[in-house]
Amino acid sequence: MESVAQEKGTLSIHTENIFPIIKKFLYSDHEIFLRELVSNAVDATQKLKQLTSYGEFNGELGELKVSVKLDKEAKTITVSDRGIGMTADEIKKYINQIAFSGAAEFVEQYKDKEGGKENIIGHFGLGFYSAYMVASKVEIVTLSYKEGAEAVRWECDGSTEFEIGPAERSERGTDVILHIAPDSEEFLSEFRLREILEKYGKFLPVEIEFEDKIINNPNPIWTKNPADLKDEDYLEFYKELYPYSEDPLFWIHLNVDYPFNLTGVLYFPKLKNDFQVQKEKIKLYSRQVFITDEVKDIVPDFLQLLHGVIDSPDIPLNVSRSYLQADSNVKKINGYITRKVADKLSEIFKNDREGFEKKFDDIGLFVKYGIISDDKFYEKAKDFCLVKNIDGKHFTFEEYREAVKDNQTDKNGNQIWLYTNDPKKQDAFVESAKKRSYDVLLLDTVIDPHFIGVLEQKLEKVNVKRVDADTVDKLIEKDITLESVLSEEQKEKAKVLFEGIMESKAASVQVEAMPTDELPVVITFPEFMRRMTDMQAISGQASMFGNMPMMYTVSVNANHPLTEKILATEDEAQQKELAKQAYDLALLSQGMLSGKALTTFIQRTVEVL
């Protein structure tokens, strides 16, 4: 075979300024140079394994790990592999020509376009050149696996000039030696290199050695057959991903090869009310190389509450492999994951209803989020999404319709589903509902104000009302009308009296016939305003009502003995005091009495006793 000749040449890129472009324009995150070089080394190693399996290489494979070495004194980082290596001709073909046909044209095409730099990968093989983000000079010393091949050295200082010639090397494979530039000396740190390697290379399919330790797990569970795995394998892997987290509730093993390749494991964590803490826990890999934890295009928004790993070589990436490009495969993957998750939940619900109910406080947040944000998910989830009443009993939507239809259908044929979001604070209203044998749901999570809206939108002739949204007989209006023991004149007198003792301009007074076992005065909030305020509080937006106080209704019970007693009191000061006491009681039942007003109420109560 012809020996390697010493020669010099010019890189075929037709421009002098390609390296500044690579350094500044293509790669915003300089640390990924190590991901690219280690990935190339892994690819070279995997290619050798394939050649062996095809019978095209019959030599000794030996130990095939990739190693990363740091030399602080020499200011070098070396990435070494024992893969296929390169001949001089291959270096000229793959390295010198930079795999695109005219950088000038490329620069013109992309430099001014918004999003231009996100649309480059696939067109150009630029992974190796990410080295020049941190290196002032790069050397390659390589020996091809081919019989009779000779070792080659290539070096280039970041200009378009390169040098190629013979090298001293007896072992098959490649060393890439980076001479770190003065502005990138942060990378001459064991801690920094380990951090990058663990971030991007934690699950690379070939062992990666750094500081005499293997830093990766080359066979993560998503690459294995689910039939060969036990529950403890999945739990152990979860701990590997999230060392300080509680155990997940359950998981889904993804494995599809048509119409796209996708593997992975998604875990259902115990959810907390703070969604942002939960998100960005799914990691995207491509052939076991970490890409990003920004998976919003692949994974629907509500599924980002899951944790775990997705690996697909079919997801199109930009040149720095750091984010996705819009693509029909991405949409298909998105739909597939939604379907798999819905099917898994449905399966658990059907096979173990009791276990599903026990977990529903945790997964309910996630299921409700899905129902709110994804119609396709709703179509499946409507059969396993549960609502829970204050006694802790769970119902599907249809089961609950059936349970309350006889007693909670109003005169217009609408079912009224009552709920509380704070059973302690709204206890008086819950008790009033119970006296009528009404059922009360508990809807107290951060997402329930939105969920309630979806229930009313999706379920025909269902209205959802909080127990304190109106007096109990107005919450579910029947054809029965209670007669008032007060005359119209007395009702007007009571209205004027109570309006006179109230300081709040946000309240309106009405006098109405209620059962005698209700409170003498009841304070309620209009459902629409309270719901809007709840939803805006969750989203962190200012209320559309500005700083206005929350409007509320003061309902004076015309049939309560105390109302009659107040109206019959002739001493005006005493009459006002009794009315104030009844009104303060109503405020107290809604948790609206505090500070000086509460102190005064307590003193007044003691005096009356």
UniProtKB/TrEMBL annotation:
ATP-binding in keyword set: yes
PROSITE patterns: HSP90
InterPro entries named in the record: HATPase_C_sf (IPR036890), Heat_shock_protein_90_CS (IPR019805), HSP90_C (IPR037196), Hsp90_fam (IPR001404), Hsp90_N (IPR020575), Ribosomal_Su5_D2-typ_SF (IPR020568)
Protein origin, superkingdom: Bacteria
Molecular function terms from GO: ATP binding; ATP hydrolysis activity; ATP-dependent protein folding chaperone; unfolded protein binding
Presence of the UniProt keyword Electron transport in the record: no
Record key words, sorted: ATP-binding, Chaperone, Cytoplasm, Nucleotide-binding, Stress response
CDD domains recorded: HATPase_Hsp90-like
Residue sites binding ATP per the record: E36, N40, D81, M86, S101, G102, T174, R321
SUPFAM superfamilies linked: ATPase domain of HSP90 chaperone/DNA topoisomerase II/histidine kinase, HSP90 C-terminal domain, Ribosomal protein S5 domain 2-like
Family affiliation: Belongs to the heat shock protein 90 family.
Name of the protein in its database record: Chaperone protein HtpG
Name of encoding gene: htpG
